[in-house]
Amino acid sequence: MSLLELRSISKHFPGVKALDGVSFDLQKGEVHALCGENGAGKSTLIKVLCGYYPAGTYGGEVLLDGKTAAFRSLRDAEEHGIALIAQELALVPWLSVAENMALGREPKRNGLIRWDVVRAQAERGLGLVGLDVDVDRQVHELGIGQQQMVEIAKALIKDARILVLDEPTAALTDSDAERLLKLLMELRARGVSSIYVSHRLEEVFRLADRITVLRDGRSVDTGRTADLTPAKVIGMMVGRSVDTLYPRPASVTEETALAVDGLSVADPTNPGRFVVRNVSLQVRRGEVLGIAGLMGAGRTALLSALFGTARSPVTGTIRVGGGPPRPAPVSPREAMDLGLALVSEDRKRYGLVVEAPIVENLTLAVLRRFARPLLLDHRERRKEAQAQVDALRIRTPGLNLAANQLSGGNQQKVVLGKWLMSAPRILLLDEPTRGIDVGAKAEIYELIARLAGQGLAVVLVSSELPEVLGLSHRVLVLSQGRPTAILEAKEATPERVMEAATAVA
Amino acid sequence: MTEDQPKPSLRSAIPWRALTMVGALLVIWVVFTVLTDGTFLTPRNLSLLARQMSITAILAIGMVLVIVAGQIDLSVGAQAGLLGALSAIVFIDKDWPLFASFALAIVIGALLGFVQGSLVAFLGIPPFIVTLGGMLLFQGALLGVTGGVSRSPTADYRYVGQAYLRDEVGWTLAGLVAAWSVWKAIRESGIERLKWIGLAVMGGVVAAVLNAYEGVPLPVLLVILLAAFFSVVASHTPFGRHLYAIGGNREAAFYSGIPINRRVIGVFTLMGALCGVAGVVLTARVGSATSDAGRMMELDAIAAAVIGGTSLLGGRGTVWGALLGALVMASLDNGMSLLNTEAFWQPILKGAILVAAVAADMAGRRKS
């Protein structure tokens, strides 16, 4: 009998089928890895089995020890021995290690917390994970790796039998990651089972007994690690052939629009580490340069650094057009003056003033142009906005509609239009088709091809591999912040890209 | 056990922030003492200072907990004014017994806090808005119930705000504090031991100074008792620790199974009850309930908490720190009055000190 079994789990979000009949099982003393591309449904699946989504909000059945389990909350699942180690560390920085471990279930007598018991429990927990720190230290004084250990210790003193780890090594240094893997192997020997979600195939193959691959919300296959190879797993993760539907602009000039040399971006939360490390690239006028990589590979951080919105120090130089080498811009204003434009990955947060009308959004970045000399020339402004609406075929009854009244695809076109109005020479696109429907995607693809055809240099980041492969002339692959491959379109197969994306740089 | 672990270095064990605040307070006192030729440090003036700080201190004690949980309550001044007036009115007009009229203020305060907290927790209205609305509403209600005229309760009522304890009581209390501190000091070691010894000495000094005038003022005793009680609540009960967790990392609190809504409502309810206490003391001390009582006191309470090291971002702050903050604020008022400085300088200086305190906090945060 399986320790934990999920039977044909389905989970819908408005407009999206995140999970479609996924089955999964976990044996006692097993490490079972979950693999898949971004958006394959891994996070949704673990949220179902940890009670984050309460029973009743998903289809299918969860069985624990062969009995139906209907967890109402994270707490409920925890009481049944399932502990989630979330991607974001769930510790309170200003509380002590001991207190964090007791949080939510403090031992007490006469209404007062028994600190001696709290400390003793914490010390027992730290003993279980082999971490030697003073339990009275505040958590923010610890390194990320130590904090992760504290989280696992916190789960273990609650008698967790099943640890669910979501990308636990994503923020860790190599030596901390190594310690974590060793710990999980030790715990397995003591009968603690783990579900291990990771992009890092090298880790998965060292650690896991079995691997389940998810794709597009379905389980592709489950196999024993011994019977699989990384190449096979990558094949299952990618699984689809690249469409020929992507128009690729033909004419690439020889004129360099943007050259980046040795760009590094410090990790804002983790001093001494880098989210982007020593990346050099060139984009020519008329070229689409794709940037592929898994979540956390540093793609967004790279674009942010180029557009002057990085939250941490940036080193390295850039050259724009035929200009001399110079440091990366430090503000969007400066980047715009250099002829850069960024369509960010989160249009509602960074791209649009969602409550404001379309005309407002379209002209936001270039308002100065309409100042005559102080007051805005509304007629001219509307005229130019209307020209963008027509050119991009934004479907709207008028310019005064609030941006959030539009469909996702049309919203994205407004963001694109906003930046096209600034007449950029280099267009940075971060997930330009996220969350929009297929028809609108095709239109965006066409638009990208057209703009490149007009001589614009485009840098395209997308988690949808077919999109990157189909649209780009060349593909730069990042892994853990470092460039691991630069591939010409004809040699960029999904397998080669995924191989480079999961490589240890 | 802990003894086997490497102890954190001495440098990190010393509460630098607290020492900085005490240092700042000492500087303020020295400056005023020099400028007033010693009048500032007379027992008479220090006793006045202690009484002046009492109402801000009571509100600040609750405000620390509210801010620690990542919330804010702008309504406390108006609420204290309203509750003080209600309690005076039932005492004067309805002939309620003294105890019942005090209880009324506290119970209604808790109820108002409960309602405000529920609006924050369940409807997701930002606490700034809920309590800003509350502030206006309570100000209006206060004007309504007083009809714009001051109501003065009899001496029985005023006793709470104006009485002094006999010298023997003060000494006994100081003795109790010293005994408790010494007992703790014996069980602790290092910096902790020093802290307890310091507390024992401080208890004696405070009692000596206050007895050198008329004795320990009743509102001051109330402040000390409330501070001690809520300090224990903050540090040693699940409720208190959950407030720190919610303000420090709401996600982590959620993932740890903490009932966030109940805690938020709880802390607003407590704050409301403390407004009731503050309102009674206010009416009693001033000797009458006026239609603008308590106005702007919320800002003094917030400033006291923040100067005392409470982070407006939530998750950090102590009740004793807020008391120190209240003392800083009261010292500024008191010292400038002694110097006959024109009244307009008081808010200007207090404002500058508040901003400087937060600037220091932010700088400290960046370093760590």
Topology:
The complex is a heterodimer of chains A (505) and B (368).
Chain A lengths: L3 E10 L2 E11 L4 E5 L6 H8 L9 E6 L2 E2 L5 H6 L2 E4 L11 H6 L5 E2 L2 E2 L1 H15 L14 H14 L4 E5 L7 H16 L3 E5 L3 H7 L2 E6 L2 E7 L5 H9 L17 E11 L7 E11 L3 E5 L6 H8 L7 E7 L5 E2 L4 H6 L2 E4 L3 H5 L6 H6 L14 H15 L15 H13 L5 E5 L7 H16 L3 E5 L3 H7 L2 E6 L2 E7 L5 H8 L4
Parallel strand pairs in A: 3-10, 3-11, 6-9, 9-10, 15-20, 15-21, 18-19, 19-20
Antiparallel strand pairs in A: 1-2, 1-4, 4-5, 7-8, 11-12, 13-14, 13-16, 16-17, 21-22
Chain B lengths: L9 H4 L2 H20 L7 H26 L7 H17 L5 H26 L3 H20 L8 H8 L4 H21 L2 H23 L5 H19 L1 H11 L1 H6 L4 H27 L10 H11 L11 H20 L6 H23 L1
Structure commentary:
The complex is a heterodimer of chains A (505) and B (368). Chain A is of the alpha/beta class and 505 residues long. Chain A folds into 3 domains: 4-238, P-loop containing nucleotide triphosphate hydrolases (Rossmann fold, 3-Layer(aba) Sandwich); 240-339 and 425-505, Rossmann fold, CATH 3.40.50.300; 350-423, no CATH class. Chain A is built from 17 helices and 22 strands. In chain A, the strands form 5 sheets. Chain A has a 6-stranded mixed sheet with strand order 6-9-10-3-11-12, with helices on both faces. Chain A has a 6-stranded mixed sheet with strand order 18-19-20-15-21-22, with helices on both faces. In chain A, β16 (314-320) and β17 form a beta hairpin. In chain A, α8 (230-238) crosses α17 and α13 packs across α14 (408-420). The longest helix of chain A has 16 residues, at 174-189. The two termini of chain A are 41 Å apart. Helix content of chain B is 77%, strand content 0%. Residues 1-9 of chain B have low confidence and may be disordered. Chain B contains 16 helices and no strands. Chain B starts with 9 loop residues before the first helix and ends with a helix. Chain B has 2 domains: 47-163 and 219-367, ABC transporter involved in vitamin B12 uptake, BtuC; 164-216. Chain B has 368 residues and is mainly α. The interface between A and B is medium-sized, with 36 and 28 residues.
